[in-house]
Amino acid sequence: MPSATAPEGWVLGRVGGAPVVVAPTSLLLGALIAASWYPLVSSALTGFGILTVLGVVGLTVAGVAVSVTLHELAHGMAGTALGRRPVRYELYLWGGRTSFGPSRSWRPWKDVLTSLSGPATNLVLWALGRWALGSGVVETVPAYVAVWALTWVNLALAAFNALPCLPLDGGHALAALVEQVTGRPRLGRQVAAVGGLAVLALIAWRWLLWPLVVQGTRPGSFQLVLAVMVGWPIAATSWRVLGLGRGGRAASRVDLRELAQAVAVLPAAAPLEQVRARLAEGAALVIVLDGSRVLGTVDDQDLSRLDPPPGAKVTAGQTCTVLPAVAVTSQTGGPGAVSALARAREVSRWLVVIDEGTIVGAVPTGAR
Fold first, then answer.
1. % pLDDT > 70, the chain
2. Which residues cross the membrane (predicted)?
3. Are the C-beta atoms of residues 256 and 352 closer than 8 Å to each other?
4. 77, 101, 131, 268: which sits with the fewest CB atoms below 10 Å from its CB?
């Protein structure tokens, strides 16, 4: 999604015009991975110096980052091949997010392929690692330990991301598949959210209850941290999609995507004539971008107030109205969507709706 509505981070570079952004929390997560991996590497490399051990640990953490990056780039390549270009890549070390621009001919089955391309990439990396370990290409013990770790990390990334629960790739694929078959996007999300509750039950059993009930031991601190890191986004998403909690049932029937009107996206340098053309073609709102950053919006009401002198070269960036951050939401349904619409109404005529990183439309707020 545009940087104006996404978490801040460090821009590593651009791929196909889309910025690759690393979240600051990646440093903390990298430290956690390094701390958990260090004892295992140290025991596997008995007789080697501490610099070698630290080097293998660092190489492993860097390899995880590369694996996650390739995972997200695979989403972008698949989306581009199917007709929807990525506008932003976000990396969090344990995962990431690829955000896409709008597409007029997008179908749910394309979401299935785009979502599964990431786990498929990790499976390819796992297969390459298995080949490297078995072919004798890796000759030194430290290198073997690093490659072995990254091989199984990629298998874990593929399996975990393929789980049928939101917000993971498998959940998005399941939701899109149900939508493709039934034509009911809300049902697809609800099915994937129920899958999330099932995955939460498995996480609680395997990492918390199994040690307590079966083994008679307390779960380790790393297990607890991992369970919270993995389970929290799944729980929050399932809770929101299913509309659980007080007042949630009524609010859960609100779906901003069903209320959203078509939008068009233009660069800031686009001439005013192109803005008029997009609105005449049926777009209710034109979103103006400066690179990947949302500069503002233009609608028919904005155009009615313009009176440029004859022959003046006016651009979209010069005529757009600033879009406040609260006028953009990724909460498409439930109480979060209702609250987002109420907040946007105080500052904007439109609430831009983003679903799974894609701008799907804009909802009129009723403001003047």
1. 90
2. 12-38, 44-68, 145-166, 187-208, 220-242
3. no
4. 131
Instruction: Indicate the length of the chain as a whole number.
Output: 368
**CB contact at 8 A, 192 and 169:** no
pLDDT digits (tens, 9 = 90+) for 223-237: 676 777 778 888 888
The 10 Å Cβ neighbour count of residue 195 is: 21
350: exposed, middle or buried (Cβ count in 10 Å: 0-12, 13-18, 19+): buried
DSSP 3-state of 353 = strand
183 class by beta-carbon count within 10 Å (0-12 exposed, 13-18 middle, 19+ buried): exposed
Model confidence pLDDT, tens digit, residues 32-75: 777 777 888 888 888 888 898 888 888 888 888 899 999 999 99
Contact 9, 22 (CB under 8 A): yes
Q: 169 exposed, middle or buried (CB, 10 Å; 0-12, 13-18, 19+)?
A: buried
Please classify residue 149 by burial: count the beta carbons closer than 10 Å to its beta carbon, then call 0-12 exposed, 13-18 middle and 19+ buried.
Answer: buried
C-alpha to C-alpha distance for 189 and 150, rounded to whole angstroms: 32
The whole-model pTM stands at 0.67
- The DSSP secondary-structure symbol of 291 reads T
Report which DSSP code applies to 3.
G
Write down all domains in the chain, each with its CATH number in brackets.
3-250 (no CATH), 256-364 (3.10.580.10)
- List strand residue ranges (DSSP E) for the chain, in order: 10-15, 18-22, 86-91, 96-100, 263-267, 285-290, 293-298, 328-329, 350-355, 358-364
For residue 261, give the DSSP letter. B
Which H or E run contains 131? Answer: helix 108-135
